[in-house]
């Protein structure tokens, strides 16, 4: 397992998530099973774990690893389908819902996944290969403005206009079909010392757009909160500010009892408080964890309990 992905904030995640060892838990980002394994170790035989991953490789790997475990159910669904999964399993409520967002080290390291700009691969970036739009199609057919907006909105890339302009000039000569062709074009206009960060932001923005990651996260949070039993916990690990902001704002909103304007004498919004935040500040990996797992460096854990 360690060959594929070292789980981040593992003990912290489990400590926040599990309050009832006979409870029902959901891991929306099964990956190579790091967190799922620990959940299974912690719950007892009466407990149940339902885990899903949208990536077929990760799902197949984990199916061969966990396939025979009686108190675990596995799905190759997007976690935004948590409602459907709960219906299929006749589950009314979960005691804990977990997600470790983003992609695994395996997806980053495996050129065939096409998520890395460091290795030659088809410009793809789809986690779910049934999605129609690939990064290559986007880069070769979207307008300069559309491409620039994607880099800016989902990568917070300041040179978005300059990079999009160069891409559109270059694609007239030859289609941009691989990760290394795209990285090469960007390297022509970005100084060496900023290159890795720029490439990370550009690839992140394409990945978020292609997989609709922010919309999917919002749907997942909405439905998950409604599917938590009273006292049940939601624990989310994020790796960049866009997804962290969505989790933080959603938790804050669901903690409010009322959203009426201040000048209203009586409440008329009918809002109810659904969550209580239990991590006032996000939890970060310790120095020790960071020293053994560089990929943990941008991780933040937020947790809340269902009221
Ligand atoms: C950071 S890895 C999780 C690693 C896992 N916790 C472990 O320790 O092995 C994220 C995983 O979530 C999957 N994923 C990302 N977005 C998803 C989504 N919307 N629905 C289901 N799986 C998703 C990715 O394919 C990837 O395998």
Write a structural description:
- The protein has about 300 residues and is an alpha/beta fold.
- It has 2 domains: about 10-105 and about 215-305, 3-Layer(aba) Sandwich (Rossmann fold); about 130-210, Putative methyltransferase TM0872, insert domain (DNA polymerase, domain 1).
- The chain has 13 helices and 7 strands.
- It has a 7-stranded mixed β-sheet with strand order 3-2-1-4-5-7-6, with helices on both faces.
- Strand 1 (about 25), helix 2 and strand 2 (about 50) form a beta-alpha-beta unit.
- Helix 7 crosses helix 8 (about 160-175) and helix 11 packs parallel to helix 12 (about 240-255).
- The longest helix has 19 residues, at about 190-210.
- It binds S-adenosylmethionine.
- S-adenosylmethionine binds near residues 7, 54 and 100.
Break the fold down into its secondary structure elements and pairings.
Elements: H1 10-17, E1 24-27, H2 34-42, E2 48-52, H3 56-66, E3 72-75, H4 82-88, E4 94-100, H5 105-109, H6 135-141, H7 144-155, H8 160-173, H9 179-187, H10 192-210, H11 213-226, E5 228-238, H12 241-255, E6 275-277, H13 287-292, E7 300-306
Parallel strand pairs: 1-2, 1-4, 2-3, 4-5
Antiparallel strand pairs: 5-7, 6-7
Helix pairs in contact: 1-2, 7-8, 7-10, 11-12
Bound molecules: S-adenosylmethionine.
The site of S-adenosylmethionine (SAM) has 23 residues, from helix 2.
């Amino acid at each position: 397992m360690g060959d594929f992905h070292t789980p981040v904030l593992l003990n912290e995640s489990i400590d926040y998530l599990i309050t009832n060892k006979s409870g029902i838990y959901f891991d929306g980002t099964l990956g190579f099973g790091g967190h799922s394994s620990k959940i299974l170790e912690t719950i007892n035989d009466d407990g149940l774990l339902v885990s899903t991953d949208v990536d077929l490789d990760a799902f197949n790997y984990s199916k061969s690893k966990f396939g025979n475990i009686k108190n675990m159910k596995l799905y190759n669904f997007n976690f935004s389908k948590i409602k459907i999964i709960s219906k299929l399993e006749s589950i009314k409520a979960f005691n804990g819902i977990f997600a470790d967002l983003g992609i695994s080290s395996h997806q980053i390291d495996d050129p065939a996944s096409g998520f890395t700009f460091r290795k030659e691969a088809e410009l793809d970036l789809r986690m779910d290969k049934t999605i129609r739009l690939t990064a290559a199609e986007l880069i070769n057919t979207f307008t300069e403005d559309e491409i620039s907006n994607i880099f800016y909105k989902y990568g917070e890339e300041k040179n978005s206009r300059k990079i999009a302009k160069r891409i559109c000039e270059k694609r007239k000569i030859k289609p941009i079909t691989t990760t290394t062709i795209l990285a090469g074009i960007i390297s022509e206009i970005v100084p060496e010392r900023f290159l890795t960060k720029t490439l990370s932001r550009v690839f992140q923005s394409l990945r978020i757009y292609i997989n609709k990651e922010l919309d999917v996260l919002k749907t997942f949070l909405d439905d998950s909160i409604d599917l938590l039993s009273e006292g049940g916990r939601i624990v989310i690990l994020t790796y960049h500010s866009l997804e962290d902001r969505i989790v933080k704002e959603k938790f804050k909103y669901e903690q409010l009892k009322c959203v009426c304007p201040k000048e209203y004498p009586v409440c008329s919004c009918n809002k109810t408080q659904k969550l209580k935040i239990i991590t006032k500040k996000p939890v970060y990996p310790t120095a020790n964890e960071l020293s053994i797992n560089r990929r943990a460096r941008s991780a933040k854990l937020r947790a809340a309990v269902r009221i």
